[in-house]
Design a protein that fits this description.
Blueprint (H helix, E strand, L loop, with lengths): L11 E4 L5 H12 L3 E6 L3 H13 L4 E5 L5 H14 L5 E4 L14 H29 L2 E6 L12 H21 L4 E8 L16 H9 L12 H8 L10 E4 L15
Parallel strand pairs: 1-2, 1-4, 2-3, 4-5, 5-6, 6-7
Helix pairs in contact: 1-7, 3-4, 4-5
The structure holds D-gluconic acid.
């Protein structure tokens, strides 16, 4: 098979939440495959500038835009600015997200709504405003970053699971409505990865750390770079007839009910 299928040269990829973590890892992979990366964050310009240095040090063509993906007015303004200053967006990766670990019966409604807003409504806002241009150009790629929680529940992450479960179905509905325009909309479902988001539950001795290593057939936490191949595949010509699919990169978690802790 020709490697040209996976070549992203000449493409512009906007990755929300790409100043660190999984978003940065997937953006770097797409950058190394040739894409020009639009880096997004909302915390501070300093964080974006620091990330841009990291991208550039790895030979990746990247520019940064600070905006809040949950604010439709900011999104509309930013997308127009990107189109004016960089060019049309070929690949949109909806990665930005938050998590709040609280038992549902103790969770404030405002906290629940904030998780839904950022993890589910924002991908809708971003996609709604990027897809218009993709329709006009009759091509585009949208990749929604889902989760194990798109398929499974877990104590204390009910709002996040509701959002990520919804994001899986939103991905399927986007494909239903937009595939006829030669736009492919898919998801990536990361398993458990070593990032700042999972740092609190990954410390040595933390029961969840042992649990995940035992629950994952690959017997380890994922390395963010393990997501690069899935990102390149779904961003490239190689996936032109793949639509509404969530590609799980989870070391085998969803393939098994797990095993007793005393079994190898
Ligand atoms: C948690 C973790 C998960 C992972 C990931 C799994 O608290 O259970 O943070 O949410 O980050 O989403 O796919």
């Amino acid at each position: 098979m020709s490697v040209a299928l996976f070549d992203l040269t000449g493409k512009v990829a906007l990755v929300t939440g790409s100043t660190h973590g999984l978003g940065m890892a997937m953006a770097k992979a797409m950058g190394k495959a040739g894409a020009r990366i639009i880096v997004n964050g909302n915390s501070s310009q300093e964080k974006i500038d620091k990330a841009l240095i990291e991208y550039k040090n790895e030979g990746i063509d990247a520019v940064g835009y600070k905006f809040n993906v949950a604010d439709e007015n900011e999104v509309i303004k930013a997308i127009q600015q990107i189109k004016d200053e960089v060019g049309p967006i070929d690949i949109l990766m909806n990665n930005a997200g938050i998590i709040k670990r609280t038992p549902l019966d103790e969770m404030e409604v405002s906290d629940f709504k904030q998780v839904i807003d950022i993890d589910l409504v924002s991908p809708f806002i971003m996609s709604k405003h990027v897809v218009k241009d993709m329709m006009a150009r009759k091509k585009g790629k949208i990749i929604n970053i889902c989760s194990m929680m798109s398929e499974l529940g877990r104590n204390t992450v009910g709002a996040y699971a509701a959002a990520k479960g919804g994001l899986k179905m939103l991905t399927q509905n986007m494909a239903t409505e937009w595939a006829k325009h030669n736009i492919q909309i898919n998801g990536i479902g990361p398993g458990y990865f070593a990032t700042s988001q999972t740092a609190p539950i990954r410390v040595d001795g933390h029961p969840f750390n042992e649990f995940i290593i035992n629950r994952t057939p690959a017997s380890k936490w994922g390395d963010p770079d393990d997501l690069g191949g899935a990102a390149i595949f779904l961003a490239s010509e190689a996936s032109n007839f793949v639509n509404g699919h969530v590609l799980y990169v989870d070391g085998g978690i969803l393939a098994t009910i797990g095993k007793p802790s005393n079994e190898d």
